Amino acid sequence: MPPSDSALNTFPSPVDWTSLPPRVAFYEPVLPRPSRKSLILAIALFLLTLCTCLAAGTQFAVAYANNQAASLDEFLRVFTLFYKNPAGLLVGLPFAATLLTILLAHELGHYFACRHHHIRSTYPFFIPIPNLIGTFGAFILMRSPIRTTRALFDVGASGPLVGIAFAIPSLFYGVLHSHVVPAIALPDPNKDSLIFGIPLLLRLLDALFHPGVNPHFLLLPPVGRAAWVGLFVTSMNLLPAAQLDGGHILRSIQPRLHRITSILVPLALVPLGRVWFVWYIWAGLLLAQQFLRVGPVYDPVPLDPPRRFAAFVTLVVFLVCFMPVPISGL
Q1: Structural domains of the chain, count
Q2: Among 38, 82, 182, 269, which is disulfide-ready with 283 (CB 3.0 to 4.6 Å)?
Q3: What is the pLDDT of residues 233-274, one digit of tens each?
Q4: Is 195 part of any domain?
Q5: Residue 141's domain spans which residues?
Q6: How far is CA 17 from the centre of its chain?
Q7: 21 lies in some domain
Q8: pLDDT in tens, 35-57
Q9: What is the DSSP letter of 327?
Q10: Phi (first) and psi of residue 211, to 5 degrees
Q11: Burial of 302 (0-12, 13-18, 19+ CB in 10 A)
Q12: All residues at 6 or more sequence positions from 207 whose CB lies less than 8 Å from its CB, including other chains
């Protein structure tokens, strides 16, 4: 029998793994906040968007004061105020402040949902464009994957729900202070006048506060028009396709159906492009997203009842906000 060697017989004692506490989450630590460069870029884009929204709001304010429909010709002339009379743009502040508040609330809903679920993201970035509404909206970039279906739902639904919560009071104010101008329902042959679509929510408020009045006759004040833009942006984002908010929501509930609608929804938008050409662009962008890699969801736990109810609420929001023809006369 070989001599025993205490050094050779020294083994680490076995570990009872069942006594260790379970890991609460498998997320990596999140950086405290995005980089300073990201913040500077976000502020710069916000200020530029404020300028373009002031120009758009000035046109809406002038049209409202004169009981006229918005006009592309007048909108282009407004930009001369930047070097002729910058103070004249202050009348566009109610529109700009309302719209930027709605859009910022929408994006901050996404941002804080990402923070809650330990998903790295940027600050909200606004898109300044000298168009009729002054912007193409805003967005955030997610720098880490969404790992659970509940996180996927929260990130997708938080933006529209928070944004619509800010848009509805503004729309109430707009309908209460609107002017009844039948002439705005018909295009002016002498001007490039515009006719705005009527979402279902606006029809309901019109029936409540202006019974018997055709909703196309309502000339909304700048605050109400900003709320209208908020409804329009919300409905576009809630389309159940690709990486839109509506796509995230549907994917968290039924991934297979999401793959199908991501193809069917763009195809359904193509016929609508005959009445509003922007649908062609939107359909192309959604189809292009089919070639982007989508990260897997590692924890496909079903949504709990409160989230399923919130999903139903987002469907209702989409139905009351969607307009097949948002703007005619372009």
Answers
A1: 1
A2: 269
A3: 999 999 999 999 999 999 999 999 999 999 999 999 999 999
A4: yes
A5: 33-238+304-321
A6: 46
A7: no
A8: 889 899 999 999 999 999 999 99
A9: E
A10: -60, 135
A11: exposed
A12: none
